[in-house]
Amino acid sequence: MSLPPFQTVLEEYREDVLRFLIANVGRNEADDVFQETFLAARRAYPRLRSADNLRGWLLKIAHNKAIDAHRARKRAPVPAEHVDPGATDARPDPPDDALWNAVRTLPERQRTAVILRFTFDLAYRDMGQVMESSEEAARRNVFEGLRKLREVYA
Amino acid sequence: MTTEIEQALERVGPVDAGAAQERFLRRAIEEGLVDVAYAPVDSPVGELVAAVTPRGLVRLAYEDGRGDAVLSELAARVSPRVIEAPARLDGVRRQLDEYFEGRRTTFELGIDWTLARGFTRRVLQSTASVPFGELATYREVASGAGNEAAVRAAGNALGANPMPIVVPCHRVVRTGGGLGGYTGGVERKEYLLSLEGALPG
To answer: Which residues of A touch B8 (CB under 8 A)?
Structure first.
């Protein structure tokens, strides 16, 4: 078994990873978490046993790094005056701001589950692989997440 | 309602992953996290692919549409952490430019011999000492590798040279004066030898 060059993996999945992170942590933080994700992936890469599901493997790392980012932000909220107003102007948020903000307030597993299900159109079985949970748990997380989004977004 | 939410969740907006990748690569390189760095290098004998490890030059290949195969081989035989990092190849590129402009006769590069093993490595190391503008025979490099009789094996070893031009297998020719083969095609061998003023006959 041999792994493809890391550069190939990076080029093939960079867009999926960044899309997942924009959805998960928001546009302002997605870039930093992208760096963390690929630095961690690069470290672990030579020990990977199979190249069969590189996308799932990267999304799993991105999921964990997104959790770290959410926790770090809770510990250290950015004072309002330090927020760079230019940052949001230069990179406009997606059209459905309110919805995405609601997604980001979901518990971490529900958040990732909802994104994997609807943004990525992943099957429950494949979601379980990314989130290291059962198919049933993935299904429940999507259901719970959607229920909360409906409350907020209604 | 649910459907509307589900549809909205499909829209993430623009995703500029190219820029994010560039920042990742810069950081990986700054932090020394690259096992194999590669980049394309232009030359008068066609596009080359050059790759270095922390130990030195590990591969120089004629691209000839085989770039992907070259990277796969590096991933399999050196390390899968293969990353495009042109800045890491600046020294190699500069020395190659100087060589092709006729301003350099020896390469001062560290060499990582990982891709050449055993007899092949010894043949190539013996070949590396053939000076600019001079010729050696297959028998001579076989002898330099410790087995004068292994002329054919020496030819095979040169054909498997992971660093043509820098390890000058083009300077090795047949005993009778024939050019012999070359990993990048015999026209390139002629070009390099005429560049060095060493084309026989």
So the answer is: 96, 99
Q: What is the pLDDT of residues B77-109, one digit of tens each?
A: 999 999 999 999 999 999 999 999 999 999 999
B31 is catalytic: no
Domains along chain B? Answer: 19-100 (3.30.160.70), 118-195 (1.10.10.10)
Are B130 and B168 spatial neighbours (Cβ–Cβ below 8 Å)? yes
Best A2, A8, A10, A100 member to test B by mutation, with max B CBs in 10 Å, is: A10
The ipTM value here is 0.80
Of B27, B31, B74, the CB nearest to A5: B74
A117: nearest Cα among B72, B199, B129, B6: B6
* pTM attached to this predicted model: 0.82
How far is Cα A112 from Cα B141, in angstroms, rounded to an integer? 61
Domains and CATH numbers, chain A: 6-153 (1.20.140.160)
